[in-house]
Amino acid sequence: MCFLCDTRHAAWSGRRGFLLAAAGSVAAVASGPLHAQVDVGNSSTLRNLVPAQELEAAAVQQYAALLAEAKSQGALAPPGNAQLQRLNTIARRLISQTAQWNERAKQWRWEVNLIGSKQINAFCMPGGKIAFYTGILEQLRLTDDEVAMIMGHEMAHALREHARARIAKSQGTGTLLSLGAQLLGLGELGNVAANVGTGLLTLRFSRDDETDADLVGLELAARGGYNPQAAVSLWQKMAQAGGGAGGPSFLSTHPSGPQRIQELQSNVPKVQGLYQRARS
Fold first, then answer.
1. How many Å apart are CA 121 and CA 115, to the nearest integer?
2. What is the set of active-site residues?
3. Is the pTM for the entire model greater than 0.90?
């Protein structure tokens, strides 16, 4: 028996196995729904201490108040505004991908609004209430792909219910009485959720929450057909805009830096197939 032939056969068998595995991966991308490609684990169970419906109701009230104020100042973009239509187009593509991250998202009344302001800012409140400020679009000269990364990130905060968890940590877990009331069904933490409604816009998330939202947002945008590499260029733009004391308000709650960019860059290959599938 030819040893060289055996060696070649073994090498081919190994390569064939590799090629078949690769083909299987391509087939998985080409057909059927895919599980999450980024690794973020489960949402914090602490969020369950704050009733979702009550927090979402508080968010609706604050969002309505913000829009009313913007409208009174002539800063709320009308439905025919080209930039608002652009945002709505991007949002529709991302919203269609949200259910796998949170089943409640199917019932949310998603809404997108554009507010005329030099602020470099954007947010998505619990329940799917999204707002962008014109400053973030104009000053950073964002492409559609980069807008999708911001929107996906903000939507991820809502989908992963970071606000519920933060409120539970700050208002509930340190108080035995509050925790006991919740366990007994007295709803004390629900009242807390309603009372912090006016502070939802300024709620600061943890570094872990931010990483979580970065990666889930990256995947949401890729599934919607937006180039995942734009996450890197976006945060590079943010870093450049963040110099000095008068940096963007967005960066006060979403600090940029090399570590954040590197984390996103390392996860781009994980969602590249989703992007290619969405574009095909």
1. 10
2. 154
3. no
